[in-house]
Specification:
This protein is of the alpha+beta class and about 525 residues long. The protein is built from seven helices and 35 strands. The strands form four sheets. Strands 1, 2, 3, 4, 5, 6, 7, 8, 9, 10, 11, 12, 13 and 14 form a 14-stranded mixed beta sheet that branches. Strands 17, 19, 20, 23, 25, 26, 27, 28, 33 and 34 form a ten-stranded antiparallel beta sheet that branches. Strand 19 and strand 20 form a beta hairpin. Helix 1 runs parallel beside helix 3. The longest helix is centred in the N-terminal third of the chain and has 20 residues. The chain is globular, with a radius of gyration of 29 Å.
Length: about 525
């Protein structure tokens, strides 16, 4: 028993000194769980005395408290009280006035300071009208509104939730919420079946599962994708629920309900891990020495020959240059110029951040978009084995001109058009995922701002550097047989880190050209 619980016990027994009352008041101001405990204990204690008066009094008190509890929508508390009423043998209390006073204090604490139904554990690149920070608690009736970014929430005793902005979510009870727009993924423990998520098209009731929900504010369309377990969908105006199992999805529109393939990578299942200590890195500043070689600045990656050599076809050349954000930048012609390093890149699904400045011409043609940075071994039968950052040239894959991360067999495409003859700072962050086939685990940044992913079918990433015949390429498609082989534009200050950088790290890199420490 901690100090707060000891003081509550003394209050219940009416044995609290004035100094202890002051101490308890201070603790109640700072501890939501203690306020909830006081509310529950005082309410139950206050019921004990009158219940022993007579049968009619007992019936009136039980009825009154049941009604109050129902109005408060505290289903768990109601069940706990009713169990105690059946189990306990009540004794006559002589000091009803004292018990009533304790009851009033407890009810005030309970109703004025309700126990949180969700608590923020992590945030990433959050933007919104109201600031959100780790440790923030949401009680019944509170709303979470995001213009952008990711928020991870703990649902006490029930699991966790990740919300991706732009989004609006209202918590309506300990086991219920309303998603008005945006994306959320819920991982609810099997022991807590019944978490209910309302949408504009109806309700979704978890049956011990992990599932993602997307509400499109513009069209009103709702999509539900089940990653594990089962979900019961209850459309508005329909009696028969729709049962969705693992790997099943439902699309709800104004014309009806349609079963669709589950979308891999549609929802963020986790946030990037926190970074500890300076990340290892390779940095090319694009400033060539007298021999036309761009030397590497390294930290923690002890590999020889990490510098960049430029080629035009098979001939070595000095890099064509132009002014960049920090000194000289390298220019690529979209025809035959590319650069290569002996550094093989980051392998497997290890966390990484690739950051650089890019200037993309407004008249970029389809065959000039691949690739700004790439590495790995490309093979038709080996999906996920390459890592490539490009400008998206294919309208069938997503919005043209946006930042594109491809792994052969999957991709993530951003929302900001880079084709405007201006310098943009871009960064791509990869981090491990518990379920890489389904959970989105790549963040895109443009000019220090999280760029919403417009197309997300990335899938498994297992970059094959061991069998690759070359190192990191700049300006050349990892698939050399493609007609879209070379990039046209300019690059400056290229960094590769072996860690998932935060938005704060990326902004500092963009503003000061200094790697995180």
């Amino acid at each position: 028993m901690n100090e707060g619980q000891r003081l509550i016990a003394r209050l219940i027994e009416k044995d609290l000194s004035p100094d202890e009352m002051t101490e308890l008041g201070c603790l109640l101001k700072t501890d939501p769980s203690l306020r909830a405990q006081l509310g529950a204990q005082a309410t139950l204690h206050g019921m004990l005395g009158p219940l022993a008066e007579d049968d009619l009094a007992s019936e009136r008190v039980v009825s009154r408290y049941q009604e109050a509890i129902r109005e408060a929508d505290e289903q768990e508390f109601e069940q706990r009280v009713l169990r105690r009423l059946h189990q306990m043998v009540f004794r006559r209390r002589s000091s009803w006035a004292a018990a009533a006073l304790i009851l009033a204090i407890g009810l005030f604490a309970w109703m004025r300071f309700p126990e949180p139904v969700a608590t923020v554990t992590r945030i990433e690149s959050v933007s919104g009208a109201v600031a959100v920070a780790p440790g923030d608690a949401f009680s019944r009736g509170k709303k979470l509104s995001l213009s952008g970014g990711l928020v991870e929430l703990d649902l006490p005793g029930r699991g966790r939730m990740i919300v991706e902005g732009p989004a609006e979510l209202e918590f309506t009870g300990p086991a219920s919420a309303v998603l008005k727009k945006g994306r959320t993924l819920l991982h609810v423990t099997p022991a807590d079946h019944g978490y209910r998520l309302e949408t504009p098209k109806g309700a979704l009731v978890n049956l011990g599962t992990e599932f993602g929900v997307f509400v499109d504010e513009q069209t009103g369309q709702v999509e539900t994708h089940v990653l594990a377990g089962e979900v019961k969908a209850i459309p508005h105006g329909e009696i028969t629920p729709i049962l969705l199992r693992k790997d099943e999805a439902l699309q709800q529109t104004g014309t009806g309900n349609l079963r669709i393939p589950v979308a891999r990578g549609s929802f963020y299942a986790s946030l990037p891990p926190l970074r500890h200590g300076p990340p290892a890195m390779v940095h090319w500043d694009m400033e060539a020495d007298g021999s036309g070689f761009i030397r590497a600045r390294t930290r923690g990656l002890e590999v020889q020959g990490q510098g960049l050599q430029f080629f035009a076809g098979e001939d070595r050349i000095s890099p064509p240059t132009q002014d960049g954000p920090f000194g000289a930048a390298a220019r690529f012609d979209g025809k035959q110029i590319f650069a290569e390093s002996a550094f093989k890149g980051i392998a497997g699904d290890s966390p990484r951040t690739v950051a650089f400045w890019a200037k993309v011409p407004s008249d970029l043609r389809r065959q000039e978009a691949f690739a700004m940075v790439s590495w790995g071994k490309w093979a038709h039968d080996d999906p996920g084995a390459v890592w490539q950052i490009s400008v998206n040239p294919f309208s069938e894959d997503g919005p043209v001109g946006r930042l594109r991360v491809g792994v052969h067999g999957g991709m993530a495409i951003g929302s900001t058009d880079l084709r405007n003859d201006r310098w943009h700072h871009v960064a791509v962050v990869l981090y491990p995922s518990e379920n890489p086939e389904f959970g989105q685990h790549v963040l895109l940044f443009v000019d220090g701002v999280l760029d919403p992913v417009s197309r997300r079918i990335l899938g498994v990433i297992d970059t094959n550097t061991k069998e690759a015949s070359h190192g990191v390429w700049l300006g050349q498609n990892i698939n050399i047989d493609s007609k879209n082989r070379f990039f046209r534009g300019a690059l400056d200050e290229v960094y590769i880190f072996d860690a998932a950088l935060s938005q704060e790290d990326i902004r500092a890199l963009m503003q000061r050209n200094e790697p995180p420490r």
